[in-house]
Predict the structure.
Amino acid sequence: MIKGLDWLSTLKSISVNSGNTKGLCVGCLSTNAFRGLCKFCEADLPVNRWHCHSCALPLAHSGDRHLCGDCLTSPPPFDRSLIPWRYQYPVDSMISRYKYSGQRKFARPLIAGFADYLAPTLQDCGCSKPDMLIPSPMLPGRRRKRGFNQARDIAESLGHTLNIPVRTDVVRRTRKVQAQRGLGREARLTNMHGVFEVYKAVPERVAIVDDVVTTGATMRILASVLREAGAQEIQVWALARTPG
């Protein structure tokens, strides 16, 4: 076994030996579901099979190390993005019902599937295990209104499964910004400028966790402040990536 990857073997063992929890499928209400999805609805999830090697933008062609146009012309401050699904039906609907309606049952199968995806993907790409998971920060007012921070939910679940510490006090949002919906990448970058500040020491290897990556502007700004604070290897972990 490659040195430093023994934790991946442990994760695989946990996954294989976990119990088959039966219940209703959140997609079709079948009574033969495993972790919230039946095998047919699970097969319908849009896998992000072909994607940019850096930001995980879905691509129309295969390739081991292909980069999208944005990453070629403006390399991001993070090293790799691990994102298993495209933000398309039914993943987009499942995340929306979780994020905006607080229906966590729609997120559970995605988060469980994400943990399963990380073990072989990290091993295949030769990525190091992060020393810390950092959820994308949310302003306290917005968190109170929504009732939770979905990025923190995802990070804590993955951190528990992979035995990686989760810290929510390392980076904070400093101000409100214009809603990102409808903005292009450059407008999003301008909108997010100066919105994050690092308040605690940052380890060498970190992973930023969120639910969805759209243009990647938020991840670029957040990764920039973490790199300035001393992070050497930065990964981006998210459930889904929007197509270009």
About this structure: The CA atoms of residues 172 and 197 lie 6 Å apart. The chain has nine helices and nine strands.
